[in-house]
Records
---
Amino acid sequence: MIAIIKYNAGNILSVQNALSRLGYESIITDDEEKIDAADKVIFPGVGEASSAMKYLKDRKLDAKILSITKPFLGICLGLQLMCKNTQEGDTDCLGIFDTTVKLFPPQEKVPHMGWNNFTKLSGDLFQGIDSDDDVYYVHSYYAEECENTIATCEYIKTFSAGLQKNNFYATQFHPEKSAGIGNQILKNFLGL
Amino acid sequence: MLKRRIIPCLDIQNGRTVKGVNFVDIKDAGDPIELAKNYVEQGADELVFLDITATVEKRKTMIELVKQIAKEVNIPFTVGGGISSVEDVSNLIKAGADKVSINSSAVKRPELIKEIAQEFGSQCVVVAIDTKFVVDTWKVFVHGGRTSTDKKTIDWAKEIEQLGAGEILLTSMNNDGTKNGFAIDITKQVSEVVNIPVIASGGAGIKEHFKEVFEQTDATGGLAASIFHFNEIPIPALKNYLRTQEIPVRL
């Protein structure tokens, strides 16, 4: 059973749909016991950072997330909330990854929306993935590169497309919307 | 490098695709799910489903269809047609749509763009503009292009961006259905004046038209319907061609 953390963000259903296409059962929940009972945890989301952090804090899910020792995958806003802080709503975040989240300067179109490839890849999340494989992004804020970066992408800046620290993994792109390449990345996570 | 997107558009009426389709390997050409899955396999980057159902009651079938699409399709998809309230948007997003496209209702009440963006984020708000060259300027049309407005397309595009739209889907009525190519001039103007992605639509007939619009404008995507449905331009052939022309596309 995979727990998908419920919070006030969109796009949660598409993660559940992707898991069920891969043959995995999942539950969308903000209940600590159910999160504890799951084999793995996914922290998805498209939304606004400060209201999402407030939702987590109000339910003490911030402390819960930090205590998790099983494989954990943050997606998009999930990745950003796992960093130290974000310029979006000037919000303090979970601080799992040693980096900050900033708004793209408007040198190119913002949001960064569409398919883009990788510039650097490492680690077991990206087994079988090449740097010219494309995945789907939609975001206006980006996490700066840091020692936890396991994949980078180029758009206006070089930013963290993937981050990992111990059992905590995160992708800025949406594996659940990235066709076959996304499936492979999800399978890699589910197989950890 | 960010790729230019190739986006097939499917017209839906009462839960069925309405335009004819001649993919050989499709058993039921009217089944939007089967058609959508076929497009995903061909390498479409996104899909747009436009609900042209006339009555409000039958729109409920669209919600059910969106749920099915979300279960089967692993690329982003947009749903448009008849959306006039935050509640309509909420129903579609909850059913699994990644983005919604609004048109006439945004012209009628521009605040709707802001309301949707605040509730669900800019990334899910696509504003569709139907535009036509009238006398000496490009104007905005509504109600499926039947009704003229006094809005200039360039001004409306800027306003849309300020209200929080995440993307513009720009259809030239002068070009739509002609297969003579996209409207390069207005697509160039709009895509240069706003800093949000612009999808060019209307007029694609041959592969070279996509090259033209991607080389000469800042459009980040090209949308078409019949040339894909009738397999006149198979998506893999189009993308391979664009890559030989050094246009970045996902293969």
---
Amino acid sequence: MTRSPALAAVSAAPDPATRPEIIRYENVAKAFGALQAVTDINLTVHEGEFITLVGPSGCGKSTLLNMAAGIFAPTSGAVSYRGEKVSAFNRKVGYMTQSDHLLHWRTVAGNIAVPLEIAGLSKKQIRDRIEDLLELVGLKGFGDNYPNELSGGMRKRCALARLLAYDPETLLFDEPFAALDAQLRLKMQVEVRRIATQLRKSILFVTHDLDEAVALADRCAIFTSRPGTIREVLDIPLPPDRDLFHLRHNRDYVDLTARLWDEMAPAISAEEH
Amino acid sequence: MKLILARLAILAGILGFWEFASGRLIEPYLISKPSLIFTTFWNWVMDGRIFFHAGITAMEAVAGFLLGAAVGMTLGILLGRAEKLAELLNPFIMGFYSIPKIALAPLFIIWFGIGLEMKVLLTATIVFFLVFLNTYTGVRSVSPELVNILKLMGANERHVLRKVVVPSAIVWVFTGLRLSVPYAMIGAIVGEMIAANRGLGYLLSHSSAQFNTAGVFAALVAIITLSVLMNTGVGVLAKYAMPWEKAQKNREVSI
């Protein structure tokens, strides 16, 4: 990729705060009718940062992603992207949800081609780009398969390739791997971390899986229950090239997840009532 | 193969019993008998009458089918994307939908005469609603999340329509089309029974008027054959239009 010089810069900049900011939430609140989804949100995402958002169900984590994408505006406060207020669909971001939303009438290659066709690339350019992307996400040789011939993990890989096809600089993930089994989820987490560092993407990743929240993140924002607000932003001092398969032996990881569990336990048990 | 043989055996059983019962258990003028029906049918084949009438009916049904499907699909997609308009028109559409369309036949005769047009339009009206409602449902069921994902990719309304809405509605369109085949036949045949001097519906009512029970059954056989042909046609078209459906059957590739 053409970005490889920048790759070195990532590891050379240990303090994310020194990097330019990319998304900023300032005193953001959002209400849907009488329902106050989030309130008092203040968060700054820096270039190349991987931020996870955790919190009880329905605390408005996804609302944050939607506002960064410009799908709707905050009721009060401001969401800005690279210093500018987000007003319409923000094409600098890519969005991946729990459902992979593949077009079942198109092959894997055809699905990945969608954003490229929209961008108006030539047939040859599209073909070449698809080859690269299939390679990147580990789907080489499956271009001609239909999504309903693929396993859950492969469908996620395909959705990821489609997301990366138009090269958005920020990726928004809304519990993308929640429906996968534990082993597959770990595999996909490794892929996302690898691709995020390799392509130097900034990432906002919503999850309710506390282990995932720590394992993936540079910083982890912890939400309170509705109306959701960020209670604390946890720094995750794990190295950028961390080995997700062996994190369970990592002291920092173990301590952090334990702490996160303790913090979340009251909110989670309260959900039962 | 075994299945086909079993089906043939059932058919032979029914025909055999029918042949036996006719004149012995039940009056022949009520149920005629298979051998006589076959002879009548064969005579019609030989003098070409069956092809003439079936051709007329097929033309009416197919033309009405195509017309109704085209209009139904277009309006279904249009209203499916225009939420406000759909809400505004909803009571009118549902009100019109609840009319048994056959009851419109007398009105159509006044408007369009007793020629082919009236049957084509009657058929088209019936097919229209089935295809329209299915297409509309299909378009409405497109996930807003997916549309947002595409818009973030830079898609405009035309992209959304061409890449997502129309293809995802196709499955529903074909559901509507499959449902429509028998109804298209109803439109054409009832139209012919009410007012016509040709077509299978005419053949049916004409035979009945002359107490030619064998003729009635022979006409029914022709109608069934035509329906089956049209069904097969839609099935072939569906397979061609939706190649991913086939893929569903040989799924399961592991990672």
---
Amino acid sequence: MKCRLAVSGNMLTAYLDGEIDHHSVQPVRESIDNAIDRNQPNSLVLDFSDVTFMDSSGIGLIMGRFRETSRLGAQLYIFNPQPPIEKLLLIAGMDKLAKIQTNGKKEKYKR
Amino acid sequence: MKVINQFKMQLDSHSANESFARTAIATFVAQLDPTLEEISDIRTAVSEAVTNCIVHAYKEKIGVIYITVKIYDGKKVVIRIRDKGCGIENIEQAMQPMFTTGGPDRAGIGFAVMQSFTDKLKVSSKVGYGTTVVMHKTIASRQNDRA
């Protein structure tokens, strides 16, 4: 699990890459929180384009970052989750905390 | 019901094994020719159960996680994940969405995810002895499958 951070104006983007589970999530959480503290963004984008797996540890990651962004009055965005991840996001009600956006490259499940 | 194939493993409750456990089980189930969605559901549900053993059952110590996967007639998969950790005092409460003893960065939805991503979930536990989670999932037959 890798995480690359980019700042553009008031927007902080975390490009997540790989599998998000309880084992892999901790360093990612820390690096995002450090970047939030440094940059005080008014939007935080969690880019899920390259996330290949996520369990509820990822939901914990989003909920924790939502707490940070709401403290700053910032908006949280989730970009491009793959279908299985989007399914989990919706089950967990993450569409109530964050704006979920997909860019149309989303593939349907194939048999 | 006849067991067609089965797989057993024991592994230490190191968090690095979460990925191994879900991948091993998904690979075993792949012989039933599941859809990507079915495989993803199984990987996610297994990851939740194994993470519970690591985070809650054994906490700071390292214990053994016992996993059996059985494939029955009709593409029925039964996954049993057992620990000999601390046990759950109140299963009903533990299964409530958003209930967690795991701190602010755990969502408290592990059991809810296992329930949503499998056909049937059974949890039994005894404080001081451990917890067993049994998940059932039937892989849908494809058009070209023989009955």
---
Amino acid sequence: MISQFFVLSQRGDNIVFRDYRGDIQKGSAEIFFRKVKFWKEDGKEEAPPVFNLDGVNYIHVKVVGLLFVATTRNNLPPSLVLELLQRVARVIKDYLGVLNEDSLRKNFVLVYELLDEVIDFGYVQSTSTEVLKSYIFNEPIVVDAGRLPSLGPAALFMQGNKRMPGTAVTKSVVAHETGGTKREEIFVDVIEKISVTFSSSGYILTSEIDGTIQMKSYLSGNPEIRVALNDDLTIGRGGRSIYDYSGSSGSGAVILDDCNFHESVHLDSFDVDRTLSLVPPDGEFPVMNYRITQEFKPPFRINTLVEESEHFKAEVILKIRAEFPSSVTANTIVIEMPLPTYTTRVNFELEPGAVGQRTDFKESNKRLEWSLKKIVGESEHTLRVKLTFPQELHGNITKEAGPVSMTFTIPMYNPSGLQVKYLQIAKKTKTYNPYRWVRYVTQANSYVARI
Amino acid sequence: MSGHDSKYFSTTKKGEIPELKEELNSQYKDKRKDAVKKVIAAMTVGKDVSSLFTDVVNCMQTENLELKKLVYLYLINYAKSQPDLAILAVNTFVKDSQDPNPLIRALAVRTMGCIRVDKITEYLCDPLQRCLKDDDPYVRKTAAICVAKLYDINAELVEDRGFLEALKDLISDNNPMVVANAVAALAEIQENSTRPIFEITSHTLSKLLTALNECTEWGQVFILDALSKYKAADAREAENIVERVTPRLQHANCAVVLSAVKMILLQMELITSTDVVRNLCKKMAPPLVTLLSAEPEIQYVALRNINLIVQKRPTILAHEIKVFFCKYNDPIYVKMEKLEIMIKLASDRNIDQVLLEFKEYATEVDVDFVRKAVRAIGRCAIKLERAAERCISVLLELIKIKVNYVVQEAIIVIKDIFRRYPNTYESIIATLCESLDTLDEPEAKASMIWIIGEYAERIDNADELLESFLETFPEEPPLVQLQLLTATVKLFLKKPTEGPQQMIQVVLNNATVETDNPDLRDRAYIYWRLLSTDPESAKDVVLAEKPVISDDSNQLDSSLLDELLANIATLSSVYHKPPDAFVTRVKTIQRTEEEDFPDGSEGGYSESPSHAAGASPPPTASSAPYASARQPPAAPAVPAAPAPVPDLLDLGMENNNNAIVPVDQPATPAGPPLPVLLPASTGQGLQICAQLVRRDGQIFYNMLFENNSQIPLDGFMIQFNKNTFGLAAAGPLQVPLLQPRTSASTLLPMVLFQNISPGPPNTLMQVAVKNNQQPVWYFSDNISLLVFFTEEGRMERSAFLETWKSLPDSNEVSIDLPGIVINSVDATLERLAAYNMFFIAKRKHANQEVLYLSAQIPRGIPFLIELTAVIWIPGLKCAIKTPSPEMAPLFFEAIERLLRS
């Protein structure tokens, strides 16, 4: 059981502080913040999420720049506490619509009311927004989302995709709409975070997809929902050999290494027809998490050429090729590459007619940064970089530079080929036809090419 | 809920409190609700709004749940500082606990349990009894937790009133939430009890396994953790349990997955069929790997656990090494753990892949990570004989990049590789020697010198190389000096020519006459004696064959490992320390022999008999300070000071347990020790004990400062927050420079009526102390009214009677102090007189003694005191009459403490 729960701002201010057991001194938030801030003398290294100081165990997660912390004196399961902290953040987000310092402060009474129902004497009672609704009486004061980062993977849809109703993800699940009735809608998001490591010769060393089917329901009356996935979905490797090459077109079989489900999901017919049925609780929650190491076609190929051109100089050529169909567009692409620490000057040369591209040399950590607003499928982009050094090279510049890493978001595209075939909502009346949003997005987790 | 200590000393706006008071008493409901919200807002940012206690409590009788919850929140926070007023709330609580609305019933018991005031607790029992049998599951599940709360306040009461039995009945409840909370409450009570309370029989086991399927995710964790203490009778039962638990591995909640893994691992110990075990290992692997797709914080916990699991059962993840490859954007704490596991899983089959990764990591930016990667290569070389050569060639490649810290780290591990495979890889020495000049870290230098000395006969210019180090001999750190000494002796024994002979003289001279380091000097004298008496036996000693070192990557001692495995999923498994090394409240239950595994193999998972002999120093170092914490829990008057625990958690990635030293050395000055207000554990080594005292008609703050930190502290200053009596320092704090491990005491003269805090009187005094080296420390003290009783308080009998009569009856307040025994009237009077309470008269009423005394606090406010008691019989009635009856609670508190001590 936990003793205290608190939320600190980035500056270390107490935004929320709730003591459940009174066995730890009140100054714990300050003690914690000092320790985390100066974990190593240089203040650079990040503190681990679990540590013990003077007999008090501090367990914390970072959520949208806020520190969610729990303390305890007991040998309890830290995974429980870490999950709890994430869940508390999610519940608060469900209630307030937006999770940030401002919304927490404006709604502190509601937040304390929630905390009292979520945790009693340090024991988790419930973190289901749905269940909590019957015990919570305060109304949220909705604050403007502003430009603050929103919480959760659904935030991806906020940017660069006009087809999505952007306000939906910052809407409280309990607040009454000002203009009359609540809009009946449900969001199902298939979010895939991909990690790929290319060897210096371009081979794929490791590749992995961490996927989530995320749901957020604003349907009244909690109707039952059926979600059908690919018929040929297979779980567990080893059952059959992996000869099918499943590209982005989704033709081949989808083979999951492992998956798990939200507790509201019924799997009765899953083995037969790959259909999940559930009564979605209010709030945002993952219906299913899955993991794939089956080979897939990486959305980008990265080509790096490093040449020592003359004394004290070298040239780097970065070439990015989009391997996905031209109907799809990736956005917010950033390519980074550490350069030798003794690099003194960097000159960039973009391809002629380049639009929406920016280059930068970060002097402090000797890193080049190339950002592109968007990349259309099947296109290719090149950047030439001239480096100047104060001394002659030892001839192993490739060992002192790189690897090239890349971040991006690709809406309406998922490399695994996992699909929501249909989303069926149990009808209440003939006219009942809520909005259904099924969205796909792919995001780079660790996308790295060695040189 | 205070928080915001920065605002500790900020003054509340003038008029805010009276304004709130008015609003709280408004006739309009909405206005009252808003006012309570404002009060809560002030409370959460640390303002003292305790003076509004009565007004807030008056809002408690409402049908509005939102408002009621707010008032309850306020009560939980302030009841302790206003115990006498808190009693006002009792009636409403009791009424609420019988409200038709189940939410209100639950809210009432939940809140009562949180108020740790004895008088309230007494009234809790009946409502709790009812609520445990309530029709509504929400009320029952709240009541279940409330039993644990009550046990924490008053364990005896729980046992006497039969709450334990009621709680056990709830295990069979038809609502899974209730079952889960009952299990959690029982587990906690068992944890703090010395006798068996919650024992899981095969009957409860099957009930709980059934409940498991219907519980919320959190309830599943409570139940799985409780069940992990169950010992299956045989392999068949173990298999049955595992079968019921395995579906939990598919849960989206990582805590459920890890608790299920723990259960399965424990039961696997009993399962004899190798097929079943192999199958289970296969089933556990994917969920364990999936944990690494969660947030980095959870990954860290998972990795620390996996580290233990693969030490015991390497096959589980033998084929999954790729998932432990570091991602570019992993936080450093995740990367470090992944490296550790990669070393453990490295095998002849995958070593090429692993080396490729390590080589890549060794050119990354983060220095600590790079060093660890280089070391990892060395450890693989030591672990895998057939791969050693490949590892060495990678190390040589890295050395050629000439990044200083990579080279030094490589040389350190190569020295170990030489020790592991003597006479195998010496051909690379020449390459190593090229980097000689760049070495500037002691460990790397010492390693290089060791290599030169060890292989002096194969290095042509060994004498030149060593000589280059000798010039700076006096300035080198001891580690390097010791290696230089030994290496020079080795060189001389191997090449007894003129050069080395001169060198040995220089070194021996430097290491004996011109050093203060006793270790170095002793070693040098031993060599000197050896060399001068018998060079041949010197050879036998110095050049003796060294024992071959082995791989240290499975570094945990097997009994410790078993103990940690029994604690999988808990903090213990993250720290890699047994629970009693860091938990202040430990289980003291004695395990009996028959609880051991029936097959008697290995001693198994039972708690502690093994680790005492194990390689972990913490238990011995820490058990002494904890001893006092094991005493039965009494409701502490001030927030419990944390036990003086040394920083046990050297969370460095190595297992470094050696640095633990108990720091608990209480200084005992003459007289009763002063109460500790700022424990050293809170004050970064600074401990402050203090108490208000009265000497010769003057109030002093008697303070003792103890510096347990490593640095001298000076420039002490003190400040007092507003308090009821306006107590403040009359002059500057006189504390001299405080050297480490010293203490100083001082008597700080105090004045009254400086900054008076508004509101009803209370005994709280908040103090801030600063010095030039540390942050500002805040602590609170309890003012005893006794120090204010002046020497002028003596009254004539007639004046006493007159004053008594002149005061209205409403100014008379009385209290019963049930636990106090008067054994001798004279002794009691003497004690009271010592605190300026002067005897007026006494009379006998039936068998009771009635004493009359007078006292006076500053500004001439008299206290007329009447004490009634029967000698030798517990129970004292204390009545006072005074123009300031609001001081009565403080007086009662003070006199009770005086007469009780």
